[in-house]
């Protein structure tokens, strides 16, 4: 599944409206909003992940990004360092699914 041209145009339009002096927090917030919010972004990422071949470069990049995000969020919430290097692909999939549950 890829982003439709209409969605791409909408995202580009929203991103073009970001002020040049926007802070990183504002930029992240605007990007997440362009994707329809955090849950929609997670679902899109999960759909993309599932359309890729196991072991593919794209799938590995998504796993790395999710692992990094989980690690950073864990560190922030516990104020300690967190290592995701020992998580399996199944662990990361389970984490993604739990983030998407209502």
Sum up the structure in keywords.
102 residues, mainly alpha, 5 helices
Break the fold down into its secondary structure elements and pairings.
Layout lengths: L4 H12 L7 H11 L3 H14 L5 H22 L10 H12 L2
The percent range for strand residues is under 5%
Based on DSSP secondary structure assignment, what is the total number of beta strands?
0
Gross morphology is globular
Mean pLDDT: 78
State the separation between the terminal residues, measured CA to CA. 23 Å
Proportion of helical residues: 55-70%
Give the low-confidence spans. Answer: none
Broad structural category? mainly alpha
Series of H and E elements: HHHHH
Helical stretch tally: 5
Largest sheet: none
Radius of gyration: 15 Å
What does this 3D model show about the protein?
The protein is an all-alpha fold and 102 residues long. It has a domain at 55-102. 70% of the residues lie in helices and 0% in strands. The chain is globular, with a radius of gyration of 15 Å.
